[in-house]
Design brief:
54% helix; mainly alpha; 3 helices
């Protein structure tokens, strides 16, 4: 098993277990939102950062420099 796959399996499982524990503590009827995402986007805009990077980035692109994959 490669290191990247092992990381995804181990840390993905740990993240899932932590998320499940957190979900158990959320009060019934509590309003869930994506306000943290909006806040982050406002912070980026306020800082004047312009980017076309889409997150999260799970794995890097391994096709850089290969003309077969760079053709569009």
């Amino acid at each position: 098993m490669g290191n990247s796959l092992l990381d995804v399996i181990v840390f993905g499982r740990n993240a899932g277990v932590s998320a499940a524990e957190k979900a158990k503590t959320v009060k019934s009827g509590a309003a869930l939102s994506l306000e943290h995402v909006r806040k982050f986007e406002r912070e980026i805009a306020d800082a004047g950062i312009v980017t076309d990077v889409v997150s999260p980035k799970l794995l890097p692109t391994y096709t850089h420099g290969n003309p077969k994959f760079e053709r569009k």
